[in-house]
Write a structure and sequence with these properties.
Blueprint lengths: L7 H5 L5 H4 L8 H12 L5 H5 L6 H4 L6 H12 L6 H10 L7 E2 L5 E4 L5 H5 L12 E3 L16 H16 L4 E4 L2 H13 L7 E4 H11 L9 E6 L12 H10 L1 E3 L14 H7 L1 H17 L4 E4 L2 H13 L3 E4 H8 L9
Parallel strand pairs: 2-3, 2-4, 4-5, 6-7, 6-8, 8-9
Antiparallel strand pairs: 1-3
Helix pairs in contact: 11-12, 13-14
The structure holds iron/sulfur cluster (2 copies).
Length: about 350
């Protein structure tokens, strides 16, 4: 069985305990943060195992190559500490089970991955995707299964992720452009952390978009709009891709308005909190986030994940901002009409 690579010595020598010091839901000083992570590594009890709300952010805060959230997840599973009622966990696990109902486009050497999110097929249209579509795949056979780390479950992805890697490899692709953060993170963060080999190149769609916009720069008419960006929890597992948001906005002439809850201090959309930790946490996080967006004076709220978009679009619109997927904003900049907006 696959084992998480985690180096206790890095925590013992860690100067800042950033994983828990920067956590927006728990309160730790550097010294106690280090001690808790060492305790968790050694299998001892820690309040972190009870109190962590699975926002994934400590995976980004740790700059020392350890995987604090993956470790928390492992120890919760070892100790049987559930993050959600068993029925909800089972329902989610059942949804992602491979059932032989996948969908393939005309597969080339480069392909788009829609994971298991059908909405992604609707927005990958127009000139930005003309050089790769209709080379795509979709379905549970290609679903990364990373979402189960919200549920203190590692067994499912340890079993399914190697099968997904093999399924993609069998398509003969050399490069995969992932339209969903969790899928990209599955192959660039989770798989390496567990020693799984990935025999194809993984590209985040932010990088792909930026390169396409550069190639099509003569078509761009600067949008001259103010936007806020809703960063999803799953983007914390692939923080390297986040830099492209600013670069893309600069490229299309949109102003990414500064606000409190962005970049490393981003707040998640709250939908997973409602399912697992109840209404109050969701309402608090959504309320602070939306207030912050509204104060910024932005005209658009730009989304990366359709889960966030489903949860927040009506609330964003009620505050006078237009909710839009980032791809649709890019399509507007090259004179195309967005299709997957609201
Ligand atoms: S997980 Fe990373 S940030 Fe946290 S104590 Fe260990 S080395 Fe430091
Ligand atoms: S996943 Fe989020 S809530 Fe949990 S310890 Fe890490 S930063 Fe804190």
């Amino acid at each position: 069985m696959y084992q998480l690579k985690f180096d206790e010595k890095r925590c013992l020598a860690c100067p800042d305990g950033a994983c828990l010091v920067q956590c927006q839901y728990l309160k730790y000083e550097a010294d106690s943060a280090r001690k808790e992570m060492v305790k968790i590594f050694r299998g001892e009890d820690s309040p972190v195992l009870q109190d962590c709300v699975t926002c994934y952010a400590c995976e980004e805060y740790c700059k020392r190559g350890n995987h604090p959230f993956y470790l928390i997840n492992e120890r919760r599973e070892d100790k049987g500490i559930l993050t959600a009622p068993r029925a909800i966990t089972r329902q989610w696990i059942h949804i992602g089970e491979p059932k032989g109902k996948y969908e393939l486009g005309r597969i080339g050497k480069i392909a788009l991955s829609f994971g298991f999110m059908p909405q992604l097929k609707e927005i990958t249209k127009g000139r930005l995707f003309e050089d790769v579509m209709p080379s795509y795949f979709f379905g549970q056979e290609f679903f990364c299964n990373v979402v189960y780390i919200h549920f203190a479950n590692t067994d499912v992805f340890k079993e399914r992720l190697p099968m997904v890697i093999e399924n993609i490899h069998k398509l003969g692709v050399e490069e995969v452009v992932f339209l969903h953060d969790e899928c990209y993170a599955a192959f660039t963060s989770l798989a390496p952390a567990y020693g799984m080999e990935v025999p194809f190149k993984s590209v985040h769609y932010f990088e792909y978009l930026y390169n396409r916009l550069t190639a099509l720069k003569d078509l761009i008419r600067p949008l001259n709009v103010k936007v806020v960006y809703q960063r999803p929890c799953s983007n914390r597992l692939c923080g390297d891709s986040h830099l492209f948001v600013q670069k893309i906005m600069d490229r299309i002439g949109a102003t990414l308005v500064q606000r409190t809850y962005q970049d490393e201090t981003a707040l998640c959309c709250g939908s997973i909190f409602r399912a697992m930790y109840g209404y109050d946490l969701m309402a608090d996080v959504q309320g602070r986030n939306l207030e912050d967006m509204a104060k910024s004076g932005a005209e658009y709220c730009i989304f990366n994940c359709h889960g966030c978009m489903n949860a927040l679009s009506p609330l964003v619109a009620a505050r006078g901002m237009t909710p839009l997927h980032l791809i649709d904003l890019c399509r507007m900049a090259i004179g195309e009409k967005p299709e997957g907006g609201r």
